Amino acid sequence: MQIPFAVTAVLAFFLVLGPLVVLHELGHYLVGRLFGVRADAFSIGFGKELAGWTDRRGTRWKLSAIPMGGYVQFAGDANAAGQPDAALANADAAMLKGTFPGASLWQRALIVFAGPLTNFLIAVAIFAGFAMAYGIRVTPPVVGGFSEQSAARAAGLQVGDRIIEIDGDPIGDFTEIAREVMLYPGQTITVVAERQGKTIALPVTLAAKTETDEFGGKAQKGMLGIASVKPTLEQVGPIKALQVGVGDSLAAIKMTAVGLGQIVTGERSAKEMGGPVKIAQYSGKTMELGWSAILLFAATISINLAFINLLPIPVLDGGHLAMYAAEAVRRKPLGARSQEWAFRAGLAFVLALVLFVTFNDLASLPVFGS
What is the set of active-site residues? Predict the structure, then answer.
């Protein structure tokens, strides 16, 4: 009997997101232990505990009812969001020993940063592993041909031109061209190319193409439409594979940052943002394609988790880091009331964002006639 896609999608969603959340929180937990900070709870999910146990260190390891994310609650935290316990505001060094507020500023910053860093390293490891296992496809950034309505050809590029730079960014491989142009539909960029030993610079107004995925999601992409020359497959060692892993991960972060910035400034529609339903759909689709596809998808999601968690929004890791930066400048923590209002505002923003992207996901489903 064939399993319905909805079931596959839900299972794949937890298969992809679950381990990434666990490893993210383990990053916080292990660095906390390194600095002698006790953990009261390690939870996968939020809300009511469904199952759990307490280890010999007093940490409660639990599975909770709302399967979205997770948290480590260190000693001295008032809640799962990491808000400091007001009761410890005037505690002495003896009372603060082993608590999160009792750790030095740089230790607290490293504990918080360890979660997103773990997600980044997961992506690096996956990309590097694929490079080691399968080699890397090397395609010179040479124009091999044009589509019928090519923005590049209209701007004066010719077959055989070697693209060496786009808007000041050096180009070493054909795959980098797509990364440089896809986020700028309809915009004019500067392409620098080599032609018969000479360097030319051409302004190119990118074509704008709206792509609709099989789940109804729409996204605008910038296109040069040029075709590549024949690629070659190159086997790489561990050092080169690691370089590929780091490079691909940093490129993914850059694209995420640019795309989010365009949404904030109105250059790109907020409807392109996806949430848990969209992640589940893509998880199910990649699972149907096999383990290689789902691992690469997990790397992409891991990068997004790292980036999103580093946004300077209270309740997220980036919000904590922003408060520690303020503490370093002021040479004292923000006041308890200021922190409380910051956490409330951050929580409200995150909940509103989750509702918005979930609505986007649902609105794109065929059942709503999108």
Answer: 25
